[in-house]
User: Fold these one by one.
Assistant:
Number 1:
Amino acid sequence: MKKSALLICAALGALAFLTTKSRADWTRSNGPWSSTVMDILANGPDLFAATRGGGVFLSTDNGSSWIPLDNGFTNPYVNSLGVSDTSLFAGTTTVYGGIGGGIFRSTDNGATWTLASSGLTNSSVNSIAVSGSNLFAGTDTLNGNGGVFLSTNNGDNWTRVSDGLPLDHVLALVINGTSIFAGTSSSGVYLSTDNGGSWNAVNNGLTNLTIAALAASGNDVFAGTNSGVFLSTDNGSTWTQGDSGLTSPFIHSLGASGTNLFAGTEDGVFLTTDNGTSWEHVSSGLTNKYIFSLEASGSDLFAGTWGSGVFRTSDSGENWTLASTGMTGGDIRSFAIDDEHFFVGTGGGGVFLSTDSGANWDNVGLINEFVYSMAARPDGKGGVSFFAGTMGDGVFRSTDNGATWVSATAGITVPLIWSMAVIPNGKQMDIFAGSWGGGVFFSTDDGNSWTAGGIIQGAPLIASFAYNDNYIFAASWSSGVFRSSDRGLSWNPVNAGITNTFVNALWINGNDLFAGTLGGVFRSTDDGNTWVPASGGLTSSSIYAFIDSDTNLFAGAGSSNVEPGGVYLSTDLASNWNSVSPGLTNTNIRCFAINNADLFTGTYGGGLWQRPLSEMIGGPSPTPTPTATSTPSATPTTTPTVTPSATPTATPTPSVTPSPTPTPTFTPTPTPTATPTSTPRPIPTPRHRPAPRPRPTPPH
């Protein structure tokens, strides 16, 4: 008898498969979720937004609506924007799995883009600055090949101009007259007065050397750090700190508008009118306070958030309104479904609910917007408890279909919840939660209390669960698959034949157990005792999600500059795979769900997509065994770093800074390499900057 298996970001509801309406390929399911906006650029009447996973968006009506500008982009993870004369430039970030690209250029206002990276030896571009005909790019540094690059021919060629710079990431650039300032991730501020020919440290008075933002206003230069804002009135020779009134020390962005200076933090926007001596909190109306970019345009100020798009104010921050219509490139991480309710958990936007099979969505809120796992537990009396696992605040439960959520974390000692599953135990349903850094927790009383499961040695992150009549299986990063015969009290590794032990997803179909790894798919027919490769036909090796419909098995893959990613289908239990991805503009797959005869897939930064099952497997599909639970995808989600202590950095106690390290800190995280030799960095980090709230840097 087949038992449903719960994996990374996958869920099945009680479904009835009927003949579906005709529709070609994949289409985007537009919801109210929105993109993570890393940079905003005003160019005359036009506004451009750089997003994490959704590419570049354009607004010609002051932010009221946005359209995607992705023609020519091979990397949708955009960190920075710049304009020089009639050319637009977009700097992309290198995702941990290999997505790279460097700088793209458009000469037709964003309608089309071409790669303009000749000479760039590091393709993760954090900042762009323009001075006359000189174009500067600040990049990551790896093996000494990054820093600052200069182009004097509109991006046709780039030359590294980093003499005097440390081997450190350049997160910010600002030009003030003939002075160029570079802000680094751990070495402070550097100054060049000869177009980058040489650089000197100018850190006198800086007590924090992580510089995530720079701004210039008149003769003044401001530096945003992990410890507030510093001001220099003498071209960087000395700095003084002014943080009176700042309630968040993590400064991700700075924006000047006339004599006003604004700071974007993990607690909203702050305003100073006295050069940083004192600050006023101006965040009324901001429903998401993780601010990563600021830009003034005329009398309006725009703020880009982590996971909720753009907000606009016309009164210097006194009141903000959402201005993100059309910006649908959200980070979709998890699902939970019952007969009438379809929940989506996002990386930065909270939880959304649809009661009409995904046609319309409502935000049903959570105090923590980073929801990497969800589950639905029937209570046996006709009701359902829905659970949301968050990065930093543990588990939340709703017993009224998402109208209200309460904390249900008693007994969970590490509140970084990456995966969840509801597993039958006789007549009752137990809940399992996989954490980042704390192993497995389980509850037998609807989440009122949790018990720590047996130690899973060497497993920093529990990515997925599956079960059958005899065992419960857990997927881990770096340590492979574990098996328990006593409902989680003890675990033993079962990895014979698995050649890549970074396991993101598990799935059971009949007597077959499947593992999705950073090295392809493996199959076991003996409860995990032995495994064999099952990747024939796969052109992508990083597998993050599974789901099935009868004997049809789907696998979701991550994309990189050498692998296409996307959705794959096998009709012969993984002996052969074929891509079924036409129409997907973002092929970095993180989770699956089946609802009303459609297959839904959540992407990393590219929103939610759907396609009729009948288009891929032909004809009406049998109803799968209902599963009211889901488990998010384990991807190592950018600087919201959920680093167990770093910046999306995961720290058992969330913090507002998205850097990797199992001491959670939150910073967007890169997707691990297909065959890592060391623990992968959590999720692509567009900008190695402090990350928002759960401080760990979740993996993508």
Note: The CA atoms of residues 414 and 652 lie 5 Å apart.
Number 2:
Amino acid sequence: MLKVSLISDTHTKHHSCENDLPGGDLLIHAGDFMNTGYSINEAYEFFHWFDSIDNYDTKIFIAGNHDRLMENDPEKMTGILTGYKTIEYLQDEECVLYFDGPNGDFPEDNIRIYGSPWQPEFYNWAFNLPRNGEEMKAKWDAIPSNTDILVTHGPPFGYQDIPGGQSIRVGCEMLRYRVDEIKPKIHVFGHIHGGNGHYYNGHTHFFNASVLNERYSYTNLPFNFEWDQTTNEIKWL
């Protein structure tokens, strides 16, 4: 069993949730750690905070639509991140947690995590692509079929994707198609603050891990649970 914590959409208010992160094997942040996304100081402050958390074995984050610097100046930002040794940033790439023993005898025990920041176009924010376009399809087609944990900023269509006070679903249809196809064990995202919650469809646990509500107040606790990667069962902590 792995102890896992999930957060998203902290928007510079990450300190609000730090007392609700009990520690464990894996901590994931699904994007939107900045506000407007232009302040380098906001990025530095988040990187330092995330790096300073010392009670998780692995810490992974992706960017979101508010994290403009990560798209506008990726070379500079990834260069800065090389100075933070305990955190992993994923942008259309994979991170593997190796549990197959010293001889590699049990590769089925490894956990493959893939992170991507893209979402359907919404005004002029970061990591936006035309809804249902070929560019979007290419991003989701790149997700490896053997992914165990998928981290995207936005939700797939139909799962935890209804904004507060509304009845329409705003998730990505193409992402939903790919998720249905590859069936990751866990899919964590944020973006739609009012969609915070968990749903299990029989093969994938969907987590909208937004910790702020739509007024940007810290109202939603991180998801903390023990996870059996073999049976895909979770036990809430």
Note: The helical segments are 40-52, 68-72, 74-81, 134-141, 173-182.
